[in-house]
Amino acid sequence: MHAVIAIPVSAAAAPPPHLRKITMGERIYAAASAGVAWRVRRGAVRLDRITSAGRSFAGLALQGDVIGAETLLFGQYSFEACAIGDCELEPWLTAEKAPSGESLLQTLAATERRAADALALRAGEAFERVRQLCLLLARARDDGRWEIAIPGLKDMAAITNLTEATVSRAMSRLRRMGMLQRQDRRRALVFVRPEVACAI
Amino acid sequence: MHAVIAIPVSAAAAPPPHLRKITMGERIYAAASAGVAWRVRRGAVRLDRITSAGRSFAGLALQGDVIGAETLLFGQYSFEACAIGDCELEPWLTAEKAPSGESLLQTLAATERRAADALALRAGEAFERVRQLCLLLARARDDGRWEIAIPGLKDMAAITNLTEATVSRAMSRLRRMGMLQRQDRRRALVFVRPEVACAI
DNA sequence: CGCCGCGTTGAGCCACGTCAACATAGGTGG
DNA sequence: CCACCTATGTTGACGTGGCTCAACGCGGCG
């Protein structure tokens, strides 16, 4: 697992690997660890978000896709990557980390995080999905409270992969529990009580 | 709904808008139409993939996220975008479409497509989800048949948000139906009969 | 050999989908 | 202003698809 021989830091950081072959089931990199970005030449990779609650599926990468691009920005991986099939990986954009692409890199990282959020909204119990969606849509106001503009039930149902009836029931329960306080009916602003909402 | 006054095409196409305010429920752009990329300054946006079977949720964009970046590459939007809340949009990367960012743009577009694929794997009936996952993992071989390296049930269950038992039942059914032919047991190569698989 | 991880299959049950009835708001036309 | 219509949200009753739990077969490994 660990390096057998002690290598000077400069030497260890210098030689970027040029091709990696991974066997099915093997972990490619761990979340929050350092490394380079990779392009998947062959195989399939599963990305997972690691939280205190455990790991949850956060993305899929197939042939041609790039994984770990966020490391070029943050210096560490946001997700964990595991090979779902035998893989060949090649380093991606190691040297020519063009400063003109900074904005694009940020956008790429944000897109992947948002995709992971959306995936998470389709796992777990119905009530929890709707609750998480509300928290995702909430914004802090000037007075310190949070508010959300509730979308239509159709949209919430499509996002969470539930039915409108189930979403409506979950919203009613959130209101009964005091997490949501209706401000005005229909496409209205609704308050989120932080002390309740923050107990994620 | 329609333009009240007829505007010359050159005039209509010339001035890139500098800020767009969208009201909840309004469509921002249609799939396969032309336009610019946008950054969401405020609000929430729902992305949908438009297929012959209808529209299906394909992504979420919140404050700070970029939508429609693929139009810089392909000249048209891949998804449809609708405002889930009142939005403010500003054009993104219209002028300085740096050629050095070409690779990054392609990666960004691919990432969004893959995220939409992953989301689709968590909607619909269990059997169909597993079937679509198999098709996604399948690769064409030299002899014209398709093959897939089946991941573990744990992985397939995590991706589709089903249980191992349900995935196993779906895989058995695929085998009984002749779509999959087991090549060798356990982490094995399995053949996909194209004539069956292509009847998506 | 015993053990463990993985896949498979059955039985029962429950969370959610389905269907329906109704309430309310908004829009439109008179 | 009201009458009417439609879209949307709410809630109840009921059925079911998939989860839970469990047993079992199989292969790999110490």
- The CATH class label of the largest domain in chain A is Mainly Beta
**How far apart lie the N and C ends of chain A?**
36 Å
Largest interface: A-B, 53 and 54 residues
Number of strands of chain A: 12
The CATH topology of the largest domain in chain A comes to: Jelly Rolls
Task: Write structural notes for this entry.
The structure is a homodimer of 200-residue chains. The first copy, chain A, is built from 7 helices and 12 strands. Chain A has 200 residues and is an alpha+beta fold. In chain A, the strands form 3 sheets. In chain A, strands 1-8-3-6 form a 4-stranded antiparallel beta sheet, with no helix packed on it. In chain A, β11 (180-182) and β12 (189-192) form a beta hairpin. The model of chain A is unreliable at 1-12 (pLDDT under 50). At the A-B interface, β5, α3 and α5 of A face β5, α3 and α5 of B. Chain A binds a DNA duplex (30 and 30 nucleotides) through α6.
Quick structural gist:
The structure is a homodimer of 200-residue chains. With 200 residues, chain A is of the alpha+beta class.
What's the topology here?
The structure is a homodimer of 200-residue chains.
Chain A lengths: L8 H5 L6 E3 L4 E3 L8 E5 L2 E7 L2 E8 L4 E2 L3 H4 L5 E4 L3 E5 L10 H19 L5 H12 L1 E2 L5 E4 L3 H8 L3 H14 L2 E3 L6 E4 L1 H4 L3
Antiparallel strand pairs in A: 1-8, 2-7, 3-6, 3-8, 4-5, 4-7, 9-10, 10-12, 11-12
Helix pairs in contact in A: 4-6, 5-6
Chain A binds a DNA duplex (30 and 30 nucleotides) through helix 6.
Structural descriptors:
homodimer, 200 residues, alpha+beta, Jelly Rolls, Arc Repressor Mutant, subunit A, 2 domains, four-stranded antiparallel sheet, 12 strands, 33% helix, disordered N terminus, DNA-binding
